[in-house]
């Protein structure tokens, strides 16, 4: 069993405990996105990309709190990797999260690919589905048109204040198109962005008092 197969076995049991917005199906979709992008980006370390994708939500504070980072480290240490590759994987993972616009810079091409692959899964039809799945799991309102989206917030504010699911579109999803960093990611994001705009327009119609 190679490192990727071992890592997949170790992380799957963890993701199976998460809600549908961040389960192992999410990981599989991000993997496919990363494969598509990496195929257009030239010479990259696909093994590092695969491992970072598999691990990137293990330490998500929304699910694992302060223990997530320990779990991530424990899994990485079980893989047959050089110290340098372990360091590279951690750096990729740390640059993926949006964190209310407070993300760390993605410096390597592998980090840029994983970030774009993950953000594509937060857009389009699947991004809409995931947003409402997460909101439902947290008991959030579907929409609240009176809410004002927070476009400047700290990482703590982003993770602690529960706004409606639709408000999250304005605080994150609709911003992602302009935050993609690879050429392929930017191209793929366009159609998904337009789909979300159309969805919001239709939702406004259906929830209007004049409907």
TrEMBL record:
Domain of life per record: Bacteria
Domain HD: 23-123
Entries under Gene3D superfamilies matching the protein: 1.10.3210.50
InterPro entries recorded: HD/PDEase_dom, HD_domain
Residues of the signal peptide: none
UniProt xrefs under Pfam families: HD
PANTHER family per UniProt: HD_PDEASE DOMAIN-CONTAINING PROTEIN (PTHR33594:SF1), SUPERFAMILY HYDROLASE, PUTATIVE (AFU_ORTHOLOGUE AFUA_1G03035)-RELATED (PTHR33594)
Protein name: HD domain-containing protein
High-level lineage: Bacteria, Bacillati, Bacillota, Bacilli, Bacillales
């Amino acid at each position: 069993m190679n490192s990727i197969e071992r890592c997949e076995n170790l992380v799957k049991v963890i993701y199976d405990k998460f809600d549908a917005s961040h389960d192992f199906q999410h990981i599989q979709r991000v993997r496919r996105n990363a494969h598509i992008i990496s195929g257009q980006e030239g010479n990259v370390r696909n093994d590092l990309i695969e491992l970072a994708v598999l691990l990137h939500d293990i330490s998500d504070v929304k699910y694992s709190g302060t223990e997530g980072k320990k779990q991530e480290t424990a899994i990485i240490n079980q893989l047959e990797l050089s110290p340098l590759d372990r360091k590279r994987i951690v750096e990729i993972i740390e640059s993926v999260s949006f964190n209310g616009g407070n993300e760390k810079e993605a410096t390597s091409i592998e980090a840029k690919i994983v970030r774009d692959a993950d953000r594509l899964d937060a857009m389009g039809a699947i991004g809409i589905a995931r947003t409402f799945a997460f909101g439902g799991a947290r008991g959030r309102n579907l929409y609240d048109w009176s809410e004002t989206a927070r476009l400047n917030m700290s990482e703590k504010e982003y993770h602690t204040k529960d706004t409606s699911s639709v408000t999250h579109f304005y605080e994150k999803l609709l911003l992602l198109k302009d935050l993609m960093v690879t050429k392929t990611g930017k191209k793929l994001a366009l159609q998904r962005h337009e789909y979300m705009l159309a969805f919001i327009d239709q939702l406004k119609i259906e929830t209007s008092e004049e409907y």
